[in-house]
Every structure is written in C-alpha cells, then in structure tokens.
C-alpha cells in the first residue's frame, strides 16, 4: 500500500487555524488545532487585540469564517481598527459575525441588534448568541475562529465560576464546529487564582508584555507540543504584528 505523504501533510494543514504571523505558526506546527482554546494574556497595551484581529483577518482570507465578540468597542470602531492595518472586511461580509458585548455596558437600555448582548453578566445569553452565530455561518463547513476580546469584562461583571463553566462549553463548541477560540485576558486586573484558573482551562497560552518600550510575546503553553519558551520581541507595524525571530529562523515575519 502506497501512502501519499504530501496529501496527508496538506490534509493536516487544512485542519490548522493560523495566527496570521507566519513565524509563530511555524513554531506551533503550522497553526492551532480545532478545539484549541488560546488564551492571550497580557497587560493593557501589549498588543493582544491587534493579535486577535490579525488572526481573524488571516483566517477569513483563507476561506474560513469567524465570530468576533468585543466587550470594549462597537462594530464601527472595530472595523476602523482593522482597516488601519489594511484589513478590509467588506469582501468577507457574509463570512463573519460581530457580537456586540459593549453597548450593554456603555448604553444600558438602549441596545438593539440580533447579535447584541443585553447583559454582559449573563453568560447563558452570550452562549445562546454564540451558538446562533455559529449556526448562521455554518462554521463547521469551513472551520474558523471564535474570538472573545476580552474575557476580563465577563469576569468583572459576572461570577468567575460561571465564566469557568462557560469556558468548558466554549471548548466543546469550538471542537464540534472545527474552530479555534482566542480569548484575551487583562493581566494584573484579576486575582492570581482567577488568572491561573483561566490558564488551566486553556490548552494554549500566549503571554504578552512590554519592557523598556519594547513588546515581547512567548508561548507559555501549547498542549503537549514542543515549542520555544523564550520571550520573542515583536513590533506592531502598519501591516500588523511582526516577530523578531532571527534567533529561530534567521529572519523576522
């Protein structure tokens, strides 16, 4: 029996969800696996939101579909952020859904929209809206991403134990629908036990920090996979995040 090795490799790649940063994807075997919960942990201003926006756009370009839930901005502001990096979502308007988890905090009682939370502390409502978005996009057909930016608001306004239970449901939803979930979390904002619990519930943890006016990230956890643990410097350019990975590959991408 002859095994088509290249066909097997290509099939494996098709089941990967990329970060949009080629160097990082190379470090983690081509991307993230269906069902992964990827925690993006860092203090405010370290580049977490830009990272998840870059991953979102990169996967739409690859024919995937996506759901982006934002707790700190409305859709118009979010679209402007992406367009500032040249990430134009207009051609993908049928392939993504934006969930507004911000308006309920900023203008309570004045919210509207099919994918708008009425109460950021109500994780049952959030999960129902997520499932509705997954079904509307038929996410399982193409695979894709579910992004929550940021989980910190749900922890601040709601019950942390309920958030932990929600994370388990999110993991199942992602796996069942060929998706990867990226969740940002504000480091230093929560009790250490809460942060440690969130890290425990995610099988992938990427840490971000700023030191001496330079940005760094590292792969703190990647399931059972082998990966570098060193902090890697990166910059945010007009095209998004660029890693300085000369140590690993001899060039930055």
TrEMBL record:
Keywords: ATP-binding, Nucleotide-binding. One of its GO terms (molecular function) is ATP binding. SUPFAM superfamilies: P-loop containing nucleoside triphosphate hydrolases. The keyword ATP-binding applies. Residues 19-241 form the KaiC-like domain. The keyword Disulfide bond does not apply. It comes from the Archaea. Gene3D superfamilies: P-loop containing nucleotide triphosphate hydrolases. This is KaiC-like domain-containing protein. It comes from Candidatus Iainarchaeum sp.
